[in-house]
From TrEMBL:
Keywords recorded for this protein, A-Z: Activator, Coiled coil, DNA-binding, Transcription, Transcription regulation
Protein name (database record): MerR family transcriptional regulator
Superkingdom in the source lineage: Bacteria
Pfam families registered for this protein in UniProt: MerR_1 (PF13411), TipAS (PF07739)
Coiled-coil ranges (or none): 89-116
PROSITE patterns membership: HTH_MERR_2 (PS50937)
Domain HTH merR-type: 1-69
Length: 246
């Protein structure tokens, strides 16, 4: 399918398709004979995934990270997208009701309380992002644990001592602002340290998901905070900044 044909089919402009190609999000095939670019059925399906993610307010950078992740499961993603778009539909319906009530309030037909004026608004964290962290973040942790379980007792002791030293080093900067240059420089070291010791299994999204788990899972929090009170929370915030910036 040619770019123009795909644009007409989906409503996505040719210019947008060119942008997706430029950033490596959706790359068409090139015909060696005539030089034309065309999209295969697989790429058409991938565009559908991209548009579902966009409808759930995911930025393009994060969409690319998720689709490029080796652990990405399309069937799981589709199920989640269906559920979350259904929830979004309910939220929109609630907001429409609030809007209708507001119109009546303006006409003097009813009187709304301040609480009622904001019914349906939700500025919390993107729900799909939380699900993605569980899917792609947790899987990286499981893979890391599997790699450790293959080690001998001596190798396990060596890596434990190495990790303890790493967390002691991180604890020393936990009072810094998570977005500070020094903190982010340490996050860059930590990101590569984890991948060097676990076989390059952490994508940026998985790295961020790991940081979320440091706070969400009490076992992680307890083990990490033994190196310094508040270290788990600091790492969560600093790892989030690092993943978003890179």
């Amino acid at each position: 399918m040619l770019p123009k044909e795909l644009a007409e089919l989906t409503g996505v402009s040719v210019r947008t398709l060119h942008h997706y190609d430029k950033i490596g999000l959706l790359t068409p095939q090139k015909d060696d004979e005539n030089g034309y670019r065309h999209y295969s059925e697989q790429e058409v399906d991938k565009l559908q995934q991209i548009l579902f993610f966009k409808e759930l307010d995911f930025p393009l950078k994060k969409i690319k990270q998720i689709l490029d992740d080796p652990s990405f499961d399309k069937s799981v993603a589709l199920s989640l997208q269906y559920r979350l778009l259904t929830e979004k539909k309910k939220q929109i319906e609630t907001m429409l009701k609030t809007l209708d009530q507001t119109i009546k309030n303006e006409k003097g037909e009813i009187t709304m309380t301040n609480e009622e004026k904001f019914t349906g608004f939700d500025f919390s964290t993107n729900p799909y992002e939380e699900e993605a962290k569980k899917l792609w973040g947790d899987k990286a942790v499981e893979q890391a644990n599997a790699n450790i379980n293959k080690m001998t007792n001596k190798e396990k002791l060596t890596i434990k001592e190495s990790f303890d030293a790493e967390f002691r080093s991180l604890a020393a900067i936990r009072t810094l602002h998570p977005a500070s240059d020094e903190a982010q420089l340490r996050m860059d070291h930590f990101f590569h340290y984890l991948n060097d010791n676990h076989g390059n299994i952490y994508s940026l999204e998985a790295f961020r998901g790991l940081g979320e788990m440091y706070v969400a899972d009490e076992r992680f929090t307890k083990n990490i905070d033994q190196f310094g009170d508040g270290l788990a929370l600091f790492l969560k915030e600093a790892m989030k900044v690092y993943a978003e910036k890179n």
